[in-house]
C-alpha cells in the first residue's frame, strides 16, 4: 500500500528517484543537527507528559519513562494502522509495573491532549493564513479552520471527563439489555475500572501540567518540521507558520488509522496537499516531503532502539536494587 501510494504520488508530481537523493543532499548538516536536537527535546517532553499522567505512587523514574516513551513511539510510528499504540500499556506494565488500566488511561488522556493541541494549533495557523495571505490560500480555509478548533474542544473535554463516555456506554448497554450477556458484563466491568483510572488521571493539577507539556511538545514538533522544510529548499515564502500548516496536513493524514508501514504514502499525501495549497509545486513538495519523512524515520529508529536498550538496562538495574531478579 505504501509503495503503491508513493508510486502514484511520484507519477502525479512527476518526481524521479534521483530528485529525492538531490533533496536529501540539500539539507545542511547544521540544520539537521538543530532539528535533531529539537526532536530529542520533543521526546523528553512526551515522556514527561506521560509520567505526569500516572499516579505519583506508580511513576517510573524519568530515564526509564523516557526509554519506554521512545520505544512506544517507534512502535506507534512504524506499525501500520496505529496498531503499535498499545505498546505503551504493555511496556509500562512489564517494565515499570504500572497496571494495564492505569497505563491505558494515561495513553487515552495523553492522546486526547495531543489532538487538542494539534487542533488548536491548526485552527490558529489556518485563521492567520486566511487573514495574512489571502492571495495564496483558498477562500474556504477560514471556514474550514473551525473544524480543527471544534475537534480541539471535544478532545479536551474527553481528556478532562473521559470517564463520562465510559459510563455512557455502560448505561447504553443497560438500556438496550445487552448487559444480560456474559461478554457484555465483563466488558462493562473493565470499562468501569477504566473509568476510575481515567478519573484519577484527569485530576486538576496534573492534567493542567500535562496540557502545558503537550503544547510545548507540539511547538517543538512544528519547529522540527519548519526547520526541515526550509532546509530542503521550499523557499523564502515558506515561513514558520506556513511550514506549520503544510506539516500539520501531513501529520493529520499520518495519524489516520489507514496508514501503511511507517506512514509512507499517507504522510507524503498530506505534505503535498498542505504545501500545494500554499503554492509550492507538486514535484518540490513531494521530493521534500519524502526527504523529511526519511529524516524523521531515521531519528525515530535511532531513538526507538536506544529506548529498547534503555528499558532493558534500567529495568534490570531497578529490579536488582529492589532485590528482584532481572527479567530474562
Total domain modules: 1
Number of strands: 0
- Which structural class fits the helix and strand makeup? mainly alpha
Order of helices and strands: HHHHHHHHHHHHHH
Report low-confidence residues grouped into runs of 5 or more.
320-328
β-strand amount = under 5%
Polypeptide structure, described:
With 328 residues, the chain is mainly α. The chain has 14 helices and no strands. It has one domain (12-161, 202-317). It is 78% helix and 0% strand.
Topology of helices and strands:
Layout lengths: L1 H12 L3 H10 L2 H25 L8 H17 L8 H10 L3 H33 L8 H4 L1 H15 L1 H15 L5 H20 L2 H28 L8 H16 L10 H12 L4 H40 L7
Helix pairs in contact: 1-14, 2-14, 3-4, 3-6, 3-11, 4-5, 4-14, 5-6, 6-8, 6-10, 6-11, 6-12, 8-9, 9-10, 11-12, 12-13, 13-14
Give a summary of the structure in a few sentences.
With 328 residues, the protein is mostly helical.
Features:
328 residues, mainly alpha, disordered C terminus
Amino acid at each position: 500500500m505504501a509503495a503503491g501510494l508513493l508510486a502514484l504520488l511520484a507519477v502525479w508530481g512527476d518526481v524521479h528517484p534521483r530528485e529525492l537523493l538531490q533533496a536529501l543532499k540539500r539539507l545542511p548538516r547544521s540544520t539537521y543537527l538543530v532539528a535533531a536536537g529539537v526532536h530529542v527535546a520533543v521526546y523528553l517532553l512526551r515522556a514527561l507528559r506521560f509520567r505526569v499522567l500516572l499516579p505519583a505512587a506508580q511513576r517510573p523514574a524519568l530515564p526509564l519513562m523516557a526509554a519506554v516513551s521512545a520505544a512506544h513511539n517507534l512502535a506507534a510510528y512504524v506499525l501500520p494502522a496505529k496498531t503499535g499504540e498499545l505498546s505503551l500499556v504493555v511496556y509500562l506494565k512489564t517494565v515499570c509495573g504500572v497496571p494495564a488500566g492505569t497505563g491505558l488511561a494515561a495513553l487515552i488522556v495523553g492522546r486526547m491532549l495531543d489532538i487538542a493541541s494539534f487542533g488548536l494549533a491548526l485552527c490558529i495557523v489556518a485563521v492567520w493564513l486566511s487573514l495574512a495571505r489571502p492571495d495564496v490560500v483558498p477562500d474556504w480555509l477560514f471556514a474550514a479552520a473551525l473544524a480543527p478548533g471544534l475537534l480541539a474542544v471535544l478532545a479536551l473535554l474527553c481528556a478532562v471527563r473521559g470517564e463520562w463516555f465510559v459510563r455512557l456506554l455502560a448505561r447504553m448497554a443497560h438500556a438496550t439489555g445487552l448487559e444480560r450477556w456474559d461478554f457484555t458484563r465483563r466488558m462493562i466491568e473493565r470499562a468501569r475500572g477504566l473509568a476510575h483510572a481515567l478519573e484519577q488521571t484527569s485530576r486538576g493539577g496534573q492534567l493542567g501540567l500535562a496540557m502545558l507539556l503537550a503544547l510545548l511538545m507540539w511547538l517543538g514538533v512544528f519547529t522540527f518540521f519548519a526547520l526541515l522544510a526550509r532546509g530542503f529548499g521550499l523557499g523564502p515564502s515558506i515561513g514558520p507558520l506556513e511550514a506549520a500548516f503544510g506539516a500539520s496536513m501531513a501529520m493529520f493524514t499520518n495519524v489516520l488509522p489507514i496508514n501503511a508501514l511507517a506512514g509512507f504514502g499517507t504522510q507524503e499525501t498530506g505534505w503535498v496537499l498542505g504545501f500545494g495549497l500554499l503554492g509550492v509545486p507538486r514535484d518540490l513538495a513531494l521530493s521534500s516531503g519524502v526527504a523529511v519523512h526519511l529524516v524523521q524515520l531515521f531519528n525515530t529508529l535511532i531513538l526507538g532502539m536506544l529506548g529498547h536498550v534503555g528499558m532493558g538496562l534500567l529495568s534490570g538495574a531497578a529490579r536488582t536494587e529492589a532485590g528482584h531478579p532481572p527479567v530474562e
